[in-house]
User: What shape does this take?
Amino acid sequence: MTVFWFLIREGFKGLIRSKYAGAFSVIIIAISLILVGFGYVASRDTLFLVENIRAQFDVDIFLHKTASSEEIDNFAALLDSMTEVRNVHYISPENAAVKFKKEFGEDIFDILDYNPLPPSFTISLKPIYRNLVSVESIASILSNKPVVDEVKYRKQFLILLEKYQRIVLITVMAVFAFLALLSIILTSNSIKMTIFARRELISTMKLVGATNNFVRWPFIIEGTLQGFIGSCLASLFIYGIFYFLNNYLQTVIEYKAIVSFRFYIGIVISGSLLGLIGSRRAIRKFLK
Amino acid sequence: MISFINVNCTFGKKAGVKNINFSVNGGEFIFLTGPSGAGKSTILRLIYMDLFPEKGKVIIRNYNSNNIRDREIPYLRRKVGMVFQDFRLLPDRNVYQNVALSLYVSHYKTSEIKKRVYGVLNQVGLGHRVHYRPSELSGGEQQRVAIARALVKEPVVILADEPTGNLDPRVSIDLMSLLNKINKKGTAIIVATHNYSLIQRIPGARLIQIDEGEIVNIT
Assistant: This one.
């Protein structure tokens, strides 16, 4: 037990003894995690935004004006049974006329004497089928049904969305990966500097007969503590920025960052792990 | 206790040692002498296995340089005390903590550590300097702390590499008397020095003279 407490105590004291090098390390970890934290939220919300745009994608199916109610019911049942379809919404000619009035401000009966609007369905697809290939194949199947007059969807919108989503996804992933890598390199190097500043302690411990494990543990504890403190600072900073953004900048920008408590826990765990792994890697070099 | 058998250890073009053969018995006092760069420090480093021979072998009690495993080296070093010219004390720890470190690494209990550290500090005449930092001590006192750190683990041998190199003559003489006292209690001492006047202070000590990496004389 004496050794256990000695190592724990050494780890904590090391944080104080390392002075500026230790403080520098904590700041570097905090900055790295702030970058990664903001990078994560920005990536998540960008992807969410793109997915939201995609979710608004619908397919309109216009039936022949002459379709009987039985044919319409059968077609509705067919749509309901399709695995690709998430929601089916039927628009009767009467409802279409109401919708027309709402959208164009004129009654269709004032323009024409009869209602030319056909019965139609608006379907939304399940997320995995909201792509050009699936939509084209669904549209072609439905177009071939005798009751169907026309299938309409925003093909150009889908083409553009697919093109830009790929660019957005790659950019977001690349930026996030770069930030994560940067944080690992910065953290590892700053911890290495902290340890390098106390190589004298390592060589003395080895000279008096310390095993590698004995030398290693105080530095690992110290590195983990640096990571923990750095990540707490990063969490506080990110919380402060989001609080300011959500409470004082709502009139300027239409964006609300919603971040759960789990996000901050994630930052603290990542920071502590970064410190632990960074110090473990850094000390290895000095034990050879 | 310590045997060098046909040991060669060189570092490229830099100096090293060649064909070294000698033995040290328990409780002996030995001076390794010779000019700077003769290979004295190399011999000491071979004993605490900071270096390994290219040829031949070094045997310290049960440990053989040819087949010792990396993880066994710390256990060897717990049996060997080391004192250096530059003291190698940790500046951010007080005297007690510097000496106690030797025992913490050997997994001693706190009560035992306390007892031994106070005992050894009294033995080297530093009982009143327990809470001082190295920077608050004189050179002679710092070297005494280093000796206490080496002695506290009750080693079979203390290796001292130019222990008086940074000290004035009067303090050097005191320090040699201290090492002599420790030796009288049964600990073997090996001192590497080029200061011949110190050698005369320890009558009965064996002398190993080295020049250009080779032993030129053993008494």
The interface with chain B takes residues 2-3, 6, 17, 200-201, 203-212, 214 of chain A (CB under 8 Å). The beta strands of chain A are 58-63, 85-91, 120-125, 148-152. The radius of gyration of chain A is 31 Å.
